[in-house]
Amino acid sequence: MRIALFTETFLPKVDGIVTRLRHTVEHLQRGGDQVLVICPDEGLTEYQGAKIYGVSGIPLPLYPELKLAVPRPGIGEVLAEFQPDIIHAVNPAVLGLGGLYYAKVMNIPLVASYHTHLPQYLHHYGLGAFEGLLWELLKAGHNQAVLNLCTSKAMVEELKNHGIERVDLWQRGVDTEMFQPSLASEAMRIRLSQGYPASPLLLYVGRVSAEKEIERIKPVLEAIPAARLAIVGDGPARSALVAQFAGTQTNFVGYLQGRELASAFASADAFVFPSRTETLGLVLLEAMAAGCPVVAARSGGIPDIVTDGVNGYMFDPAEPEGAIAATKRLLGAPAERELLRQNARMEAERWGWSAATRQLKDYYEAVLYAQDQFRAA
């Protein structure tokens, strides 16, 4: 099978969407399929045997790490040469609209997937008044697809409630070989805690941006004076958060990848995740695979992953003291925390990338079969 994948973001950027796409491309190519990735140009031309066609773009004003790449005629030439069986548009917003267009003019079945809860993001950038309009635009784009995929049950229902049709679930995935409890390290703990490894160590991993609501961890830190916080990642809100967390025991670590990132997860006492805009929260699965207990907001796709009191703790994001109480409970019960670690790892082991990609390919094959039946009718 030949798949043309349109995405607004790809390597070398580091986030949950890129992680999912990277593993998907790896497993599809390994299984004998051919993938063409059409994405903003970052200088890459190939990944794991898949051809990358980069489209020049400009940095997004509110988020310079992301590029706005507008479709151009060269995409049509590349698609004509590649001859895809299916087009998959990931979060079609700007470049992804080219996927919608070429699927229509070239009569190629279109699959779309929804990974970023953009309507909720608007509220964190002072643009909440446009939420209704954005839903209408999303509906117009996604309803051109034969199939729309979401990564959590909550988002499946959210899209259906806003008039998006033909929606199904693309199951979660995590690299359980990379993220393991055995990678816990005293050296990493010293590094994250800035030389205080005996102190309770809280961890945040992910984009450092407004919609992640990292500032909501500050009251937790203030309520547990002995605790230290490591923020792993980067993004447009970093300078504001550095000022906001001034005077607290917070370490802005920057990006970690691969084994270092896995060791960071495994070495922390609690992974604190206050975001209310998650379609899934892949970093939660990575933390759980590494045996790091999770304290997360009960919102979006998070309840699909975390079972409260079994493999982590959830809190009501509308309750000011919720995150504080949950974190104190976790840190105050070592025996219970160890059980949560074990259960978290067991849950993560159910969700390998191979199974997630097999499910995606089954969706592709079903779409192609339905197209053949329609043409034969």
TrEMBL record:
Boundaries of every Glycosyltransferase subfamily 4-like N-terminal domain copy = 14-177
**Domain of life, per lineage:** Bacteria
Give start and end of each Glycosyl transferase family domain.
199-345
Q: Sorted alphabetically, which Gene3D superfamilies does this protein's record hold?
A: Glycogen Phosphorylase B
Gene Ontology MF terms: glycosyltransferase activity
One Pfam short name: Glycos_transf_1
| Stored SUPFAM superfamilies | UDP-Glycosyltransferase/glycogen phosphorylase (SSF53756)
InterPro entries found in the cross-reference section: Glyco_trans_1, Glyco_trans_4-like_N, Glycosyltransferase_grp1
What the entry lists under PANTHER family is as follows: SULFOQUINOVOSYL TRANSFERASE SQD2
* Name listed for the protein in its UniProt record: Glycosyltransferase family 1 protein
